[in-house]
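debug: dumping io for the single-chain case to check the tokenizer round-trip. Nothing else runs in this session.
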Amino acid sequence: LFRLAIEVPLDALLPSGHHEEFETLKAGIRFFLPLSGAMLVAALFYRLSPPSRVVGISHVLERLKHHQGHMPTSNFLTQFFAGIICALSGQSTGREGPAVHLGAATGSIMGRKFELPSHHVQLLLACGVAAAISASFNTPIAGVIFAMEVIIVGYKLTSLIPVILASVTGALLTRMVYGHEPAFTVPALHMHSLLEFPFLILEGLLMGALAALFIWVCFHTAQKAPKSIWQRFFIIGLLNGLLALFIPQMMGIGYDTVNLALLGQLPWVALFIFALAKLLITSLNLGLGQPGGAIGPMLFIGACAGGLIGEMGSYFAPNEASSTGYYAMLGMAAMMSACLQAPLTGLMTLLELTSNVNIILPAMLVVVIANLTA
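debug: decoded output
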């Protein structure tokens, strides 16, 4: 429902008829759309109590750690409607972070409704998270690994079985609605030569540094953000609107641009600008309190920055280096895993998206180096 509430209106209203292509809007609309969306969210937040405004994966982890997984219904509704407004208004945001919150809250609310013990409530929360990740990317194994690695932080048979069932259910439901197509258009990927390993090490270092920068900007922006809701969301809307004037590819989730990076259809200048712009605008958005997700932008940054390493490899070692899309795909897994500190999730997401076991060896190297660097 969350995804349909975003895609159906945008498919109808955008000139191109596709929910990703904000670039087809006129410049004036690109500026005022994020600004008006941000002020609408500010009006919504103004009517809510401060605890009800907290959303996202960080909220899930906080409720799990300090409140035995009991998640309020008010925050669930805030995430649902505010997340839709942010996505419809073209702000730089993702839909997977809100989906994780919605899945976790669904499991938690169900557990409380049936008056289950706290450890069962926490398990249902993890089941909701697994189903959300599975449905978002059409990756059921990655959904299980994410729930066990990030939410439960451990592997027990009694936890694993229900989480697997939930993840499979999420994948089946999303395939009923959207079909069996994967989230991204992935070309045939393989490593040309062992001489590529210096480029892989460099990519791991770069992704780890970018992940650390992303977290650092989020953290320090949150520390210095204005207290006033209206000021914070006006800054969010203004920054997103101004950036949309000059780089419209930053609007929305940006998976159309990710697909272009995977197919090697973006020049190195565009890859550099897109990666840096997406990192700065998304980390500022999240630090200022935007109720959007970070996983989608992480994948965007990783694809563009990884593609940049691929372009570098093609320039300095054209006979040994693999395609730009190969490095872009590795970059997506490395950036996501380094930001979330979830290396197995990154590897399994990559394996399911590519259906290519040959990519696991270089992916392990890039992902581990990125996590250690971050």
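debug: round-trip ok. The chain has a mean pLDDT of 91.
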